[in-house]
């Protein structure tokens, strides 16, 4: 989830590029850089931290408060980037732009190159020398290898050698009037001005300069000059497309045309989950988490796993517990970090303690992880933020790759955490030999298909969810019931509902309903039942009958093609079929949307609910 800006035209572009990066600041980043081409030479400045650091490194001073602005160099073509680290630590060397061996090709990239290790090995063997740990640098060297005077052709050939989820832009020292960019899944837009053009990962980067935007689609390569842009497909065939006039104001543009960040982030989930699993499933029957720096012998011999977390991260841990126990047959204990840290836990050398925290800064989770480490346990941090405190306090780190989440209600960070827990479950099972190869291959195939199933669900359930929201948004209470792997989804659905709609909501293990909560039910209670395919579906169906017998409305989340769930409910919202352990990552989507639409119908600020703040990483 990085930010890309490129410019080619007649104006000095350094300050235009930095201004473009500033407009992408809302996306979050940990480092930034800029490359300018002038007189056949490319100069680069990169800096860790915020744009003030980049400005200082580039000798750009703020022009307010009596400070003297340094005149911009006359370069009229350049590339700039803000990085949210995925491969490689947060360092100046790993910040973009990246160059090839002779500094003739420079590139900026957003996303993940899945086959980076193969390509790096191949290019190294051919004599290419790398100066960063990133997957992105590969692209500069590939273009170098493929270049024979035509940058578009070199980018096209390189593009066809890459696998993954990315968009990148390139320039060449010999081509002072040409930028070439390519897109595979990650967004890429060209802004067309008069005698100038921009390339960007999001429209706000150039909105102050031009409103004519040309959207680049998957599998396309675009060549941009001051005169305009020409698109080809990956085979080199020309593609005709007209530019659109962007009518958005700046605020809407920041939200990519969405009314709220939360809704935008809900829709980012196919992408962020794909990025999280991409290169970690390199083969059909192997999970690669070698980044974890935990020796396989420890995994094979460990006694149990303890998961500690808060809030939504705790719910992701609960899903993870089912997956790990099911596949790896290791006992998993789960605790809320603020409880665990104060209960003098029995934990020690043969235990793996997993701290889940999207921010990597939640005090209770950090304290629980530290306590476990002091007592000799191996500690793994599962986090979304490189360089956060959790990464420094842990023996090993597994990153989710959700990018910055601005909405306070966690959505894409939850599904990426769940995806990472699935990876961990399979990886542990692989090392402990508890899963037959065929079964592992099946689950890997299912996991790879999850981003598409998330997309399918987001495309199909919205109208039904809106209808429920319309009918129920003035209600006084929501109850969520589930069993087994459906229960954490109910807990997370109820949390979303209460935190952004302020409607009291409770989630219960359906088998416990008869021990008290059943007293809450009457004709006015909407009961959301997560009734996806699972070994406890029969039991869940009986619980749904009990609810209906009390006159309450049953809204079921069902696996597609489950007529009995449809019969046992007033409304069944169907999600695509997948392995039952993987259903939660899809089942949560209608519940996120339900909370969202209820809150919007009540006129509430879903991005910043009352009394709540997002934990932020302190720089
Ligand atoms: C806050 C947020 C929640 C989040 C929790 C834990 O309460 O509002 O959305 O789940 O903190 O945060 P962490 O960064 O540790 O995952």
Describe the structure.
The protein is α/β, with parallel strands linked by helices and 619 residues long. The protein is 36% helix and 22% strand. It is built from 19 helices and 25 strands. It has an 8-stranded antiparallel beta sheet. Strands 5-6-7-8-12-13-14 form a 7-stranded antiparallel beta sheet. Helix 12 links the parallel strand 18 and strand 19. Helix 10 (311-328) runs parallel beside helix 14 (412-432) and helix 10 packs antiparallel against helix 16 (486-501). The chain is globular. The two termini are 19 Å apart. 6-O-phosphono-alpha-D-glucopyranose is lined by residues 310-313, 357-359, 362, 365, 408, 410, 612, 614-615.
Q: What is the percentage of strand-forming residues?
A: 15-25%
> What ligands are attached or bound here?
6-O-phosphono-alpha-D-glucopyranose
- Spatial strand arrangement across the major sheet: 3-2-4-1-10-9-11-15
Spans of at least 5 consecutive residues whose pLDDT stays below 50 are 64-68
Q: How far apart, in Å, are the first and last alpha carbons? A: 19 Å
Number of helices: 19
Biggest sheet details: 8 strands, antiparallel
Overall average pLDDT: 93
User: What is the overall silhouette?
Assistant: globular
Number of distinct beta strands: 25
Helix content: 25-40%
Structural class, judged by helices and strands?
Answer: alpha/beta
Q: What value does the Rg take, in angstroms?
A: 25 Å
